UniProtKB/TrEMBL annotation:
This is Acetyl-coenzyme A synthetase. The modification N6-acetyllysine is found at residue 605. Residues 619-641 are annotated as: Disordered. The lineage of its organism: Bacteria, Bacillati, Actinomycetota, Rubrobacteria, Rubrobacterales. It is an enzyme of class 6 (ligase). SUPFAM superfamilies: Acetyl-CoA synthetase-like (SSF56801).
């Protein structure tokens, strides 16, 4: 990635920006370094607590508790507390539909009322404190309303990205044993309609824990409703009581579970709790995204991923901001949709993703022309490494050179931003996420797990606990320990490679495990492999992510067939469908290569490095002498022709 440009320019914060930034005193870094618990305690005090904590941190690796004994409610912080501070009539959620100019706005008072009602709906269906609720919805306002309603009554939500298949939804519901599923009849996106209830019905054939399904109406077409189990959102809400007190939650009670791909086995139910999560999410939204009262803030991620949880819903709302929720895609009805939206709503902060920026770049600057983007004052990116060229393009063409770009590194597991500039203070370098957030401590370790001194390249490690860290993997503490802590004991092993330069700036180079990053979506190679071998004609499959200009990585599947089935177009179609059905369309392989054999070491391990090399058309595949049968490489090259 760094080879792209030999000389990287650096950018000081624009003076005008620095003058108004939420954080403009560089001593915060030193202060936090001297006493990181004290630093986070100050941030926690910026929330509303029913009762303050007795102890800031209880760290018994790998178990952390933050703000021990504190009582608070996340929905109260995002709603009632905002109304109490005079934001009742301020727009909380500005929802824009798939069709330009159509949409709806909710003030903080209106949103509070909707959430209270829906919280009562959930209670009426028997949901109590601690009962997980599954949510599978398109990007409609009912999605954040359902999340906040769960938070209000202390029911952990488990949001499943709306493009996941019925099978994926089923597995996630069964893992957390949700009693209630909240979904929608469907939703338009990019001019096409997706049918969530239909997919959910597939899942519901085999989800014994589910007693009730609530269906929000978005599309308005007929959908089959199962008597006694399925209910329309609007019918239940019409009958529900208006008042619903916010449950006093313990700081360490679960706020949500979010499933994320790992290198082996089934997706992991990442668990986030209440006090620490909201503390770090609220602080990073203010400090890194510089959100203020008069901002129109837009995070373009889907709420089904962690970015949407933390920076579309909880971060902006706990700061009393106006958050834009967009139902559609960047290319519908035209390639200027985002610019049109920014102009019409006067968006001031735009938090985007490298894959989206690269797609814009490809279209050139024409779609930008004729749109007034002067409302913008800050740009952000997240999800994957951003190549310096895309960073520069974003900075120059969207930000017109006046808006700082914050490249924010974090993960589902970290819950909130970990490495990123403070835009009023930090000099930025295209391609670098720059410095750890104050109070966060990271390092780079070599292959022998020794810290590297000064500049260098290696494995990223987080060396101290942080408030929004995952607390466990749902119902699998052993997997939690093994995945993240077994290697270093009391330090968190990230599974990302990183480089540190002379200024102490970090550039994240990408995953070092078998997790692919396709258009910013985390997909495990194992998940795609097991989907493929689920097809009767497939004996074995090996999946890798090959570098791709647009998507970051593209999925390539090597497939060994069983019996005498021919690897033809028809079979490719069937295999694509197989993946679509068992995971979702976003996991469909870009390329399927039929091969008689796979490159394996003598101990039977697939050498993915070789598969990646072949898929990227590399001439030199490096050392292949440890292969059990080195001639496989020629077969693979021939198969790809
Ligand atoms: C928030 C989110 C996490 C993985 C992470 C890393 C990659 C995210 C990045 C980045 C380079 C950035 N990643 N942000 N790589 N620079 N600014 O994306 O969570 O879906 O769990 O993915 O994404 O590889 O480990 P998640």
């Amino acid at each position: 990635m760094m080879a792209e440009e030999t000389e990287i320019r650096t950018y000081e914060p624009p003076e005008e920006f620095a003058r108004q930034a939420n954080v403009d005193d560089a001593s915060v870094y030193d202060e936090a370094e001297k006493d990181y618990e004290g630093f986070w305690e100050k941030r926690a005090k910026e929330l509303h607590w029913f009762k303050e904590w007795d102890q800031v941190l209880n760290w018994d690796p790998p178990e952390a508790e933050w703000f021990v004994g504190g009582k608070l409610n996340v929905a109260y912080n995002c709603l009632d507390y905002q109304v109490e501070q005079g934001r009742g009539d301020k727009t909380a959620i500005l929802w824009e539909s798939d069709e330009p100019g159509e949409g709806k706005a909710y003030t903080y008072s209106e949103l509070t009322a909707e959430v209270k009602k829906f919280a009562n709906v959930l209670k009426g269906l028997g949901v109590g404190k601690g009962d997980p609720v599954a949510i599978y919805m398109p990007m409609i306002p009912e999605l954040p309303i359902a999340m906040l309603a769960c938070a209000r009554i202390g029911a952990p939500h488990s949001v499943v990205f709306g493009a996941f298949s019925g099978d994926s939804l089923r597995d996630r519901i069964n893992d957390c044993e949700a009693k209630v599923l909240v979904t929608a009849d469907g939703g338009p996106r990019g001019g096409k309609t997706a049918y969530h209830k239909k997919n959910a019905d597939e899942a519901l054939k085999d989800t014994p824990s589910i007693d009730s399904v609530v269906v929000a109406k978005r599309v308005g077409e007929d959908v089959p409703m199962t008597e006694g189990r399925d209910h329309w959102w609007e019918d239940l809400a019409a009958e529900a009581e208006d008042e619903c007190p916010a449950e006093e939650m313990d700081s360490e009670d679960i706020l949500f579970i979010l499933y994320s791909s790992g290198s082996t086995g089934k997706p992991k139910g990442i668990v986030h709790t209440t006090g620490g999560y909201l503390t770090q999410v609220k602080a990073t939204t203010r400090w890194v995204l510089d959100v203020k009262d008069d901002d129109v803030y837009w995070c373009q991620a889907d709420i089904g991923w962690v970015t949407g949880h933390s920076y579309l819903v909880y971060g902006p709302l706990s700061n009393g901001a106006t958050t834009v929720q967009f139902e559609g895609t960047p290319s519908y009805p035209g390639p200027d949709r985002h610019w049109d939206l920014i102009e019409r709503h006067g968006v001031t902060i735009y938090y985007s993703a490298p894959t989206v920026i690269r797609a814009f770049m490809k279209q050139g600057t024409e779609p930008l022309e004729g749109h007034d983007l002067s409302s913008l004052r800050l740009l952000g990116t997240v999800g994957e490494p951003i190549n310096p060229r895309a960073w520069e393009w974003f900075h120059n063409n969207v930000g017109k050179g006046n808006c700082p770009v914050v490249d924010t590194w974090w993960q589902t597991e970290t819950g909130a931003i970990m490495i990123a500039p403070l835009p009023g203070l930090t000099k930025t370098k295209p391609g670098s996420a720059t410095r750890p957030f104050p109070g966060i401590s990271v390092d780079i370790y070599d292959e022998e797990d020794n810290p590297i001194e000064g500049a260098g390249k290696g494995n990223l490690v987080i060396t101290r606990p942080w408030p929004s860290m995952l607390r466990t993997i749902y119902k699998d503490p052993e997997r939690y320990r093994k995945t993240y802590w077994e290697r270093l004991g009391d330090k968190y092993f990230v599974e990302d490679g990183a480089e540190r330069d002379e200024d102490g700036y970090y550039t994240i180079t990408g995953r070092i495990d078998d997790v692919m990053n396709v258009s910013g979506h985390r997909i495990g190679t194992m998940e795609v492999e097991s989907a493929l071998v689920g097809h009767e004609s497939v004996a074995e499959a090996a999946v890798i992510g090959r570098n791709d200009e647009d998507k970051g990585q593209a999925i390539v599947a090597y497939v060994i067939l069983e019996g005498d089935r021919e690897g033809d177009e028809e079979l490719i179609k069937e295999l694509n469908n197989q993946v679509r059905k068992s995971i979702g369309p976003h996991a469909r392989p870009e390329e399927i290569i039929f091969t008689p054999d796979l490159p394996k070491t003598r101990s039977g391990k697939i050498m993915r490095r070789v598969l990646r090399g072949v898929a990227e058309g590399q001439e030199d595949l490096g050392d292949t002498s440890t292969l059990a049968d080195p001639s496989v490489v020629d077969d693979l090259k021939a198969a790809r022709q």
